[in-house]
Amino acid sequence: MKRRMKRLLDVALSALALLLLAPVMLAVALAIALESGRPVLFKQQRVGRGGREFGLYKFRSMVKDAASIGPYHTATDDPRITRTGRFIRRTSLDELPQLLNVLKGEMSLVGPRPDVPAQRTLYAPFDWHARCSVRPGITGLAQALLRSEATPQQRLELDLRYVREQSLGLDLRIAFWTLGRLTGKGSN
Questions:
Q1: How many structural domains compose the chain?
Q2: Among the four 47, 108, 154, 159, which has the fewest Cβ within 10 Å?
Q3: Cβ count near 74 (within 10 Å)
Q4: Is residue 96 one of the residues assigned to a domain?
Q5: What's the Cα-to-Cα distance from 71 to each of 41, 47, 74, 115, 118, rounded to whole Å?
Q6: How many CA atoms lie within 13 A of 59 on its CB side?
Q7: Can you give the C-alpha Rg of the chain in angstroms?
Q8: Does some domain include residue 62?
Q9: pLDDT tens digits, 68-86
C-alpha cells in the first residue's frame, strides 16, 4: 500500500511539475542548443530498483562525447563543463528531465541517487542489495543534507539510512530540505 501511494504521488507530482516547468525546460534546451548544439539531453546508464539498469535523462551540461574524454565523475573545475552547463548544474536544472524517468517508473522523486554500474564495486554485497531495494530518486537524504559535498562514505550511510527509515514523512522532509538548499534557505 505504501509503495502504491508513493508511486501515485510520484506520477501526479512529476506530471504537474513537467507541465509547470515546461517553459523553463524549453529555455534550458534552447540555451544548450545555442551554445553547443544538439543533442540537448544526455542519457547515462544507471542502476535502479532490483539492480536493473536504465537510461537516466539529464540536460547535457558538458561538451559532446564528454564520457570519452574523462571519468564518469566530474570535478568542480572540469573543463568539459560548458558555460550553460555550469549554470544548470549549480541550479540543478540539469536534473529536470529525470521527471520523465519518474513517470516511466524507473525513478522516484525521493530516494538514493542512482549509481552508474561501475560504482557497484564500492559496496559490500549486502549494502548494494539494500540500496537497490528501493527506486532511486531525483533527490535523496545525502543530497538534501550535504548536496555534493558528501564523501562516498557519508553518501552510502545516508542512502542506507533512507532505505531503513523510508516513509512518506521522511520523503516530505527530504523534499523540503532539498528545496531549501536550492533556494538558499538552508537544509534543516
A1: 1
A2: 154
A3: 16
A4: yes
A5: 19, 18, 7, 14, 11
A6: 29
A7: 16
A8: yes
A9: 666 556 666 778 888 999 9
Nearest CA among 29, 30, 53 for reference residue 41 = 29
Which of left, alpha, beta for 57 (phi over 0: left; psi -120 to 50: alpha)? beta
User: Cell triple for residue 187?
Assistant: 537544509
pLDDT of 160 reads: 93
Q: How far does Cα 149 stand from its chain's mean position?
A: 15
Could you report the per-residue pLDDT of 78-119, keeping only the tens digit for each?
Answer: 788 889 999 998 888 999 999 999 999 999 999 999 999 988
For residue 188, is it within any domain? no
Q: Answer yes or no: is 82 within a domain.
A: yes
The range of the structural domain enclosing residue 36 comes to 2-183
CA distances from 60 to 57, 105, 109, 119 (A): 9, 22, 20, 21
Which grid coordinates belong to 108? Answer: 522516484
User: What is the band of 188 on the pLDDT scale with cuts at 50, 70, 90?
Assistant: very low
DSSP 20: H
